[in-house]
Amino acid sequence: MKSIVKHKFQFLLLPVAYCIFLSSCTQIDIFEKNMVIPKYEWQQRFTAKGDFFITDTSSAYSIYLVLRHTDAYKYNNIWLNIGLQPPGDSLHIQKVNLALGDDANGWEGTGMNDIWEVRKLLNGAPRRFKQPGKYSFSISQIMRDNPLPHVMSIGLRIEKQKD
Fold first, then answer.
1. How many CB atoms lie within 10 A of CB 67?
2. Which of 75, 34, 61 shows the shortest CA–CA distance to 127?
3. Cβ(17)–Cβ(92) under 8 Å?
């Protein structure tokens, strides 16, 4: 009798486990591309570039800048030129001053040992892309230091907002 109950339990366990597996495999609508800064010294002539594709123009997206730096980075901010080029259009560049921390509270973001990663929302509220297709982006530093030491990587993250 115990063998029959055990067998029925195992028989039911497999479909339940399969359903849980399928429900956990939902698509995450995220794009993220990070570029390593050579020797962790960001030259002004080095521009991080990438492309992403938008197919759903009815949904809103949040755009984040992702920057990783060491604890030895000597400023509380970073000045960047961030460019976005929609399909069939020209590159639109915006000068951005991003706070990375302050003297009273330390670094923003998450840290492990002496490495810090900060994710900053670039578009105050989620926005819709006007047309589907390939978008290109570029990110360059415009600080006075050239090279700008202790910046490890820079990138862009696009998250589709849930309705």
1. 25
2. 61
3. no
Q: Are 100 and 107 a contacting pair, CB within 8 Å?
A: yes
5: left (phi over 0), alpha (psi -120 to 50) or beta: alpha
Contacts of 34 (CB under 8 A, 6+ apart): 66, 68, 153, 154, 155
Does 20 score more than 90 pLDDT?
Answer: no
Residue in this structure with the two tokens 């990663």, named with its chain if needed:
117
Whether residue 3 has pLDDT greater than 60:
no
* Structural tokens at position 36: 């390593």
**CB distance 137 to 84 below 8 Å:** yes
Instruction: Give me the sheet containing 48-54, strands edge to edge.
Output: 48-54, 133-141, 77-85, 92-99
Q: pTM score, two decimals? A: 0.81
Query: Alpha carbon 78 to chain centroid distance?
Result: 17
Return the DSSP state at 26. P
Per the DSSP assignment, residues forming a β-bridge with 96 are 80
Residue 48: count of CB within 10 angstroms of its CB = 21
Domains and CATH numbers, the chain: 29-160 (2.60.40)
Residue 6 is predicted with a pLDDT of 52
